Automatic annotation (TrEMBL), chain A:
Assigned keywords, A-Z: ATP synthesis, Cell membrane, CF(0), Hydrogen ion transport, Ion transport, Membrane, Transmembrane, Transmembrane helix, Transport
Organism: Rhodovulum strictum
Family annotation (PANTHER family): ATP SYNTHASE SUBUNIT A, CHLOROPLASTIC
Official protein name in the record: ATP synthase subunit a
Listed transmembrane segments: 18-39, 76-96, 108-125, 163-187, 199-216
UniProt cross-references to SUPFAM superfamilies, sorted A to Z: F1F0 ATP synthase subunit A
Gene name per UniProt: atpB
From TrEMBL, chain B:
Function per UniProt: Component of the F(0) channel, it forms part of the peripheral stalk, linking F(1) to F(0). The b'-subunit is a diverged and duplicated form of b found in plants and photosynthetic bacteria. F(1)F(0) ATP synthase produces ATP from ADP in the presence of a proton or sodium gradient. F-type ATPases consist of two structural domains, F(1) containing the extramembraneous catalytic core and F(0) containing the membrane proton channel, linked together by a central stalk and a peripheral stalk. During catalysis, ATP synthesis in the catalytic domain of F(1) is coupled via a rotary mechanism of the central stalk subunits to proton translocation.
Membrane topology: Single-pass membrane protein
Protein name (record): ATP synthase subunit b
Family under the similarity heading: Belongs to the ATPase B chain family.
A Pfam family per the record: OSCP
Gene: atpF
Keywords: ATP synthesis, Cell membrane, CF(0), Hydrogen ion transport, Ion transport, Membrane, Transmembrane, Transmembrane helix, Transport
Transmembrane segments: 6-27
Length: 226, 255
């Protein structure tokens, strides 16, 4: 069994190695976009069951964003919702035989954490400007500037490590158990992996929202909407 | 353990592209549909609220109209009641007046009928008296009756004043007797008249059985009634003039 910490290129595009995680990600993207197009092709005021399910998902994401930020969810909906959907589908892709979830390799969680780190800066600067965003590091007093800067990095790093560790460990455990008793025994662990995958997707999305909200509030402290 | 930066970059770009694609094809249209439905619902709710407000206003107008109708109905009922009372009172007064008029008319008719009845009875009594007198006169001695009546005639002339007797003697005289007078009787009557008037009298003679008995003296300007018929007429006139019931009835009618 290969080490989950070791990535082997699937093929080479010139000097660029194309890892399995990238290909799996492309497949997940294709599935999600195709499903989105099919779902939103015929939207009506009287929804079909699939449209109702899609609206339920959008409503749940909006409500979660509204609960965390107290602000209108539209600016954050696409980013936070896509993070959640992608991580969820990526985590659950381990159920397909022969597929390794992209989130079980270090690059994908690191890329997601990096995007969250950048989105914190983006939303913070958009809300309060560069000065306002930077002044947020001096709260509650300038002595905290080094610690706040370090925290902004470490919290993204912790998200990366948490997601990677949980998914990788699940895959690793299932792989070990499967190598010992391949029939039926891994099924409970796979079910547990489903739960773990959903929880991790939820945690990653909510933490992203919390960190973005923190940066927005520090940059432009406004009272939340009731 | 390996960490491939190319893969890191690919995955970051992949996720960004996925964010854009899903924003384009999923999050935005679904959220727009939800917002449109909410807007439609809000519009429908507003319209329903407006309709309800209109219905409330219409209901209020209806209540006001109904109250006005009730007030108007009460006023109309009161006016109708008052008018009915006035009309009833007028009808009662008119009926009372008409009844009084009818009563008066009936009373007057009754009085007139009673008077007519009494007159008829009186006339019947007169006729009966005449019949009785005529039958009595037929049983009596005609010569004695004629002599008695001749005496009363002479007495009547004697009771006149001298001037009246003188004027009477200048007129042509007619003696009307109840029975035919023969020549001797005529001479006797003429002699008696001449003696009473103090001048010779040559009266003409005529018979009228309606006198029953007696002699009457007529001239163009004088009449001396001296017969039972005249007596009965006088008695009837006296009875009619002295009738206390008829007098009382006329008096009460006048009241």
């Amino acid at each position: 069994m290969d080490s989950p910490l070791q990535s082997v290129p699937l093929f080479m595009a010139g000097p660029v190695p194309i890892m399995p995680a990238v290909v799996t990600t492309w497949a997940i993207m294709a599935v999600l976009v195709l499903a989105a197009v099919l779902l939103t092709r015929r939207l009506t005021l009287v929804p079909s069951p699939t449209q109702a399910a899609a609206e339920l998902l959008v409503g749940a994401v909006d409500q979660q964003i509204r609960d965390v930020t107290g602000a209108p969810p539209a600016p954050f909906r696409a980013f936070i919702g896509t993070l959640f959907l992608f991580i969820l589908i990526a985590n659950w892709s381990s159920l397909i035989p022969g597929v390794t979830p992209p989130t079980a390799t270090m690059e994908t969680p690191a890329a997601l954490a990096a995007l969250v780190f950048l989105s914190i800066i983006f939303f913070g600067v958009r809300e309060g400007g560069v000065g306002g965003f930077l002044r947020g590091f001096a709260l509650p007093n300038p002595v905290m500037i080094p610690l706040n800067m370090l925290e902004s990095i470490t919290r993204s790093f912790s998200m990366f490590v948490r997601l990677f560790g949980n998914v990788m460990s699940g895959v690793f455990v299932i792989a070990i158990v499967g190598s010992l008793a391949a029939l039926l025994v891994p099924i409970p662990l796979m079910a547990l992996d489903l739960l773990t995958g959903a929880v991790q997707a939820y945690i990653f999305a909510v933490l992203s929202m919390v960190f973005i909200t923190s940066a927005v509030e520090k940059g432009d402290p406004q009272p939340k909407e009731p | 353990m390996s960490f491939d930066l190319w893969t890191l970059g690919f995955q970051a770009v992949n996720v960004l592209v996925l964010v854009w694609l899903l924003h384009r094809f999923f999050w935005k249209p679904v959220a727009a549909m939800i917002a449109e439905r909410q807007a439609r619902s809000a519009t429908l709710l507003n319209e329903a609220e407006a309709t309800r407000a209109e219905a409330d206003a219409a209901l209020a107008d209806l209540e006001a109209t109904r109250a006005a109708i009730a007030v108007e109905r009460d006023a109309l009922l009161a006016a109708a009641r008052k008018e009915a009372e006035a009309t009833g009172a007028a009808l009662i007064d008119a009926a009372r007046a008409e009844a009084a008029a009818l009563h008066d008319t009936a009373k007057a008719a009754r009085v007139r009928a009673a008077a007519a009845l009494k007159d008829a009875a009186l006339e019947d009594a007169q006729d009966l008296a005449v019949t009785i007198a005529r039958r009595l006169a037929a049983r009596l001695d005609g010569a004695a009756i004629d002599a008695a009546f001749l005496g009363w005639l002479v007495q009547g002339l004697t009771d006149l004043s001298a001037a009246d007797r003188k004027a009477l003697s200048a007129d042509s005289l007619e003696v009307i007797s109840a029975t035919p007078q023969d020549a001797a009787a005529q001479e006797r009557i003429a002699a008696a008249l001449s003696a009473a008037l103090g001048t010779p009298a040559t009266p003409s003679f005529r018979t009228d059985p309606a006198l029953i008995a007696g002699h009457e003296l007529h001239s163009p300007h004088f009449t001396l009634r001296n017969s039972w018929a005249a007596d009965l007429d006088r008695i009837a006139a006296a009875l009619k003039a002295a009738d206390p019931e008829q007098k009382a009835g006329v008096t009460s009618d006048a009241a």
